[in-house]
Write a structure and sequence with these properties.
The protein is mainly β. It is built from no helices and 20 strands. A seven-stranded antiparallel β-sheet has the order 1-17-16-19-14-13-12, with no helix packed on it. Strands 2-3-10-5-8-11 form a six-stranded antiparallel β-sheet, with no helix packed on it. The relative contact order is 0.19.
């Protein structure tokens, strides 16, 4: 499997083309999910997004796009995101110019009860706010602690996806470890030890031993996706010691 893809972080309007590209799909046997790179132009026709057994996270990379559900219409701009619970049907109405987004979908267990009271589409929209970051205490960091902002988790109604933004300071990181879930990083800003840069995306299937650190001189900002979110009270990372 190819674990890293280098993407162009910005697309000029003159070079914009319409299309959907699957970047990663079915990383492991933990739970089927995929991430698509979607590009829209001013001539894009409305697109219906719906699945009875999958939830989705839409993250705007570039431009602005309008979405509709019933009479509820919202507009997403760069660095904003929309969480769509399963069984919800939304329509991408279009964009005034060119736009680009990630469409992340994850299947939900059929054994789960139906979702609770539906929130309005406008209540499922938010944005990255570095003033809302807090110290990440779930996993011990080497060097200065990570700072994170949770975007989506079970407390917000997700049944599978956990998404957050991580601010990793120079010299900080995690040694060899492994997760019981699939993990995806998208570099919003900065570099890491793999010489990844803004616009690059990397995945770690469940069970893959890996490490990560910021060996640059500036903080690295990462969009992080975990699927499925581990049950409450369950460890999400296990340290690996190759000497034992």
């Amino acid at each position: 499997m190819r674990y890293i893809q280098k993407l162009e972080p910005h697309i000029d309007a003159d070079d914009a083309t319409e299309g959907r590209t699957c970047l990663f799909d079915s990383l492991s046997a933990t739970r089927p999910w995929r991430i698509d790179d979607v590009r829209l132009t001013a001539t894009t026709s409305p697109i219906v997004l719906h699945s009875s057994n999958a939830e989705r996270l839409i993250y705007m990379l570039q431009g602005a796009v309008s979405f509709k559900e019933g009479s509820d219409v919202i507009r997403l701009e760069a660095k904003e995101f929309l969480f769509v619970p399963r069984s919800r049907a939304i329509v991408i109405l279009g964009t005034d110019g060119s736009a680009r987004l990630f469409d992340i979908t994850a299947l939900v267990s059929r054994d789960l009860p139906p979702p609770g009271t539906a929130k309005a589409l406008s209540a499922l929209k938010s944005r990255i706010d570095e003033n809302a970051f807090s110290v990440h205490t779930a996993h011990a960091a080497e060097g200065k602690a990570f700072y994170t902002q949770t975007l989506v988790d079970r407390k917000m109604g997700s049944e599978s996806i956990k998404a957050f933004v991580s601010l990793v300071h120079p010299g900080s990181g995690m040694g060899l470890h492994v997760h019981p879930f699939d993990q995806l990083y998208y570099v919003l800003r900065g570099f890491d030890t793999s010489q990844m840069s803004e616009g690059d995306i990397v995945v770690f299937p469940a069970g893959l031993i890996h490490s990560n650190s910021n060996d640059g001189t500036d903080p690295t900002l990462l969009l992080t996706i975990n699927v499925p979110e581990v049950p409450a009270g369950t460890k999400g990372a296990y340290s690996i010691d190759l000497n034992n």
